[in-house]
Amino acid sequence: MAPQPGVYYGPDEDETTKDLERFFIAGDFVTGTGFGIQIVLWWTCVSYLWKERRRSWKTILLVAYLSLLLAVEFIFCIVQARTVQVIYVENRNYPGGPWQYFLDTQYLAINVIFYATLFVGTFLCDLLVLWRCYIIWRASGRGMAYAVVALPIVMLVASFVMGTLWTLQSSFPGLSLYSKEPLAFGTSYYAISLGLNIVLTVLILARLLMYRRTHLAHLPPEHAKQYLSLATLIIESAALYSIFAIMFLVSYAMNKPINQVWLGFAQAAQQIATYLIIYRVANGTAWSREAIESRTFTSNTLSLRRAGASDPRKRLSPDVQFTTEFSVTQGAYESKNGLQE
Fold it and tell me: Most distant CA pair in the chain: distance in Å?
C-alpha cells in the first residue's frame, strides 16, 4: 500500500524531541567515522613505536597508553551503537518515544558505561596534553615547568572530581544527562575540562610562538617547516579539540539538540589530536626539551656563522651539523640524515 498524500506518519512527539533523536543518530555516525580514523592513527603510531621498543621503557608506556585509549574508545563506540539499537529498534513504541526511553533508563549498565567511557577517554587525553605542556616548557628549567603546569594540574583534578559526579548523577534512576542536577554537573565538568584545554593550548602555543619568533629566520626551511609551522602549532597544542569542545559546551549549556553532534565531533577530535601528538613523538618530530635547546643552539650558530662569513675571526668549526635527533657530542651535532651546512 502506497503512502497516502497529506497523511502524517511521523512520531507523536514535539519538534525538540525529534531533533534530539535526529542529532543523536547523527552523533553516532560522527563517532563511528572518528573511530575509523583513530584505528588508522593507532596502527601508524604503534608501528613507529614498536620498532623502538628496546630503546626505552617510555616507548612501551606510550604503546600501552595508546592501546588503553583505543580500548576505551572501542567500548564507547560499541555502547553507542547498542544504545541506538535498543532505543530505536527494540523500544520504538515506548510511551513518549525512543528518546523518552533513553532518558528513563539511564541507570542501565549500557548507559552507565556510555558516560564512564566518555569521561575516561577525555581524562586520558587531557593527561597527555598536560604532559606535552610540561615537556615543552621544561627547557626553561624544571622549576619553571612545574610552575607553569601547577594550575592545569589543579584543574585536571577538579575535572576528574566533577566528571565522576556527573557520571554518577546521570546514571541515577529517574535522572539523565539532561536532568537539572546532571546538567549542572555536566556543564561544570565540561567547563573545567574545556578551560583546562584552553589554558594548556595557550601555554603551549605561547611557548612555541616565542621560539618561532626568535628562531624562524635563522633556521633552514626544512627545520622551520617541521618544527615551527602552523600545522605543528595546532597539533602540539591540541587546538583542534578546543574548537569543537567550545561548540559542544555552548549548545549543551543552552540545552540545544545539536549538542549531540558537537559531542561526537569533540570526542573524536580530542582522540585524533592525541594520536597526532604521539605520532610526532614516535617519528621524532615532536617538540621536546632537547629539541628546543638544540634549536636555540643551532639558530645561534647560524647567526654567528653568517657573521663569520664577513669576519674570518668569527668563523665556526666545520663540524657543526643540522640534526633531526637533537644529540650533542663534543660540540658537534650528530644526525641520522647527515645533513650538513
Answer: 96
